[in-house]
Structure formats: C-alpha cells, structure tokens
Amino acid sequence: MTVLGPIQQVSTAELIAGQLREAIATGEYAPGQQVSEQALAERLGVSRGPLREAMQRLTQEGLLTGQRNRGLFVMELDAAAVRDIYLARTAIERQAVAHLIETGRSASADALAPLERRMAQLESTDPAISDTDLEYHRLLVGLTESPRLIRMHDSLLLQLRLCLTAMQPTYDSSEHRVKEHGDLFRAVVAGDLELADRLLVAHMRDGQRRVLEVNGWA
Questions:
Q1: Rounded to an integer, what distance in angstroms lies between the CA atom of residue 18 and that of residue 97?
Q2: Chain Cα centroid distance, residue 73
Q3: Which helix (H) or strand (E) holds 101?
Q4: Paired strand residues for 44
Q5: Residues 6+ apart with CB under 8 A from 129
Q6: Do the beta carbons of residue 197 and residue 58 sit within 8 Å?
Q7: Gap between the Cα atoms of 147 and 38, Å rounded
Q8: What b-and-e string marks burial along 179-202, b requiring 16 or more CB atoms within 10 Å of the CB?
Q9: Which of 45, 85, 186, 207 is deepest in the core (most CB within 10 A)?
Q10: In this protein, which residues make up the domain named HTH gntR-type (predicted)?
Q11: Is the pTM of this model over 0.85?
C-alpha cells in the first residue's frame, strides 16, 4: 500500500479562514466581539486581499456578521439561533440515519464505536469531549457518502461547535453523553430505524435544552 498521493494545495485565504474558525470556536474571539481587519492583518502578517477573502468565507458560514458602517463581528448565539441550528441539524441527521438503514448500510455505523470509547475516557470538563462529539456526528453524516448532505451538515458544524462548547458545563459526568451516543449508533447498526430515529430526536432535544438553559433562554 502506498502512502504517496497528490499534494493538496491550500490557499492563503483558506489557511487564514482555518485559524479564524479555530479562534472563534475556542473563544479567543468572543461572541459579539469585533474582528478588526487591520489588527488581524498585522497579527497574522498577511496582506488585506486573502484576509478579506477569508473573512468573507466566515461571513457566508455565519460565523461573522456584518454591521453597516461598523465592520464584522463574531456571531452571537441567541435562543432563536440555537433553535434554528438544532432544527436544521436534526433534519439532516435523521435523514442520514434513515438513509444508512434503508440502503442496507447500517453496519457501517459501527465505525462510530471508537469515538464512543474515546468519549468515555474523557472527563466531562475536557474540551476534547465536545470535539469528539462533533467528530461523531460528522462521521455519522459522512457515512451516507452524499456530497450535498455532507456539505449542508458541514455548514452547520462550526456554529454547532459553539453550541456544544456552551452545553459542556451542564454535564456532571460524561456518562450520560456517552450513553446517548452509544445507544444511537448501536440502534443504527441493528437496523432499527424506529428506535434510532427516536433516540436521535431525543438526543437533539436534550442538547438544545441544555444550551438554552445554560444561557438562561429556556
């Protein structure tokens, strides 16, 4: 088996966008904080052209919002945004689960088992548990091999990461979180669409409730 393959060319704008996404996701740029183009260009040592392209990408992704005559700001979650994110996310992931089972590919969901085990080894306060949670759901949708479904889901993942980070303090331990993910993928592997769908919807509702409650929006 060869380890050699085509070299992926990554533009400067994409490199900048990647750093900005990570800075927003980890809280280096707080929700509602203004992102100064000049300060960022100086900090990163880049020209305005690729920086503007990167910021435009994040605006299209919903991570940055423009305010007329004021500039760009990091998106702020509110109750309406959280509900909308979970509405779209639930629709996509329910379709992914149904597709895997109805096309006879439910066994592929066994690929989620290592992520459940990794989650079980993490403390509920460890930021890595939210990243693992995100990776689990990305893989769940990725197993469909549907480019359009994956693309729609990917567009939500960055905003979803803010939700997952916000809900993290609501768990006393990782046990409940691990059980939800374990029960879900085992139902998919078993080909039980009714159970898998019910577990997924309950999981989404629980996540939405936690994010709303921790922010005082319930």
A1: 29
A2: 20
A3: helix 79-102
A4: none
A5: 119, 122, 123, 168, 174, 177
A6: no
A7: 36
A8: ebbbbbbbbbbebebeebbebbee
A9: 207
A10: 10-77
A11: no
Token pair, residue 98, equals 């149904």
How buried is 106 (Cβ within 10 angstroms: 0-12 exposed, 13-18 middle, 19+ buried)?
buried
d(CA 148, CA 213): 32
Residue showing tokens 């990091």? 74
Q: Two tokens at 29?
A: 């740029």
* Predicted confidence (pLDDT) per residue in 104-134, tens digit: 999 999 999 999 999 999 988 888 898 899 9
pLDDT digits (tens, 9 = 90+) for 76-109: 889 999 999 999 999 999 999 999 999 999 999 9
Question: Distance between CA 156 and CA 204 in Å, rounded?
Answer: 14
CA 174 to CA 84: how far, in whole Å? 26
Structural tokens at position 198: 């019910």
**Amino acid type, 59:** T
Q: Are strands 34-35 and 64-67 parallel, antiparallel or unpaired?
A: unpaired
Q: What sign for the dihedral angle of Cα 76, 79, 80, 81?
A: positive
Give the span between the Cα atoms of 29 and 25, in whole angstroms. Answer: 8
Domains of the chain as residue ranges with CATH: 12-74 (1.10.10.10), 79-215 (1.20.120.530)
Strand-pairing partners, residue 71, are: 67
